[in-house]
Amino acid sequence: MGSVLPVGWARRRRREGSHGQTLVEFALLFPIFWTLLLGLIDFAFAFNGVLAVDHASRSAALVAAEAGNAAGGDCVILRDVEAQLTAPASAARVQRVEIYQTSATGSVMGSPTVYLRTGSKTCSYNGGTTITVPYTRDPNGYPEASRCNVLAGCGAGHSGLDQIGVRIVYTHGYLTPLHLFLGGGNSFTIDRSNSMRMEPIL
Question: For residue range 159-202, what is the model confidence (pLDDT) as tens digits?
């Protein structure tokens, strides 16, 4: 005579088997979920960095257009760059800032004035206001005094107002270890520039 299995035995066996299946599915999906989460975090911070640097260059170009050919204008521009790059971006990650003349279409004309984010520079601006910024100049290709902000022009080579541009080169570091698994570096460079016409003096 065959043995009789207890009532509910088959149902209990199915439940126990489904626990193991759920664990296996979780083990397979967890690495994918974790990778997507880390990628989303890094993308969000990188996207914020791009927007922050672009905004800083646009704001600095506006300040440059208003500063004109005033002595110490570059310090005002650099101070604005520092002020715009707030958390989660960081002004400490700026490699260099370039100030240059552009054509009406935005093409670079001549050599830029380059500021490296190292050391310090102190300027006197607007009748004695002292500004110190953590930059050193090398070289001075577009000096403040050579910029034309006079509507009628500034003599030879300046038939009208200058277009002034500001370029910021910034290093963004990854925040998660995902780049280690993908074989990438620890950081990438964000390079943004904007230009504006000088505010005219009649």
Answer: 789 999 999 999 999 988 888 877 778 899 999 999 999 998 75
In a domain, 54, yes or no: yes
Q: In the β-sheet with 187-197, what is the strand arrangement from edge to edge? A: 136-140, 108-116, 94-102, 163-173, 187-197
CB 87 within 8 Å of CB 78: no
Note whether residue 2 is domain-resident. no
Q: pLDDT tens, 69-87?
A: 999 999 999 999 999 999 9
What range does the domain containing 60 cover?
A: 9-197
Query: Does residue 32 lie within any of the structural domains?
Result: yes
17 assigned to some structural domain: yes
Whether 109 has a pLDDT exceeding 80, the answer reads yes
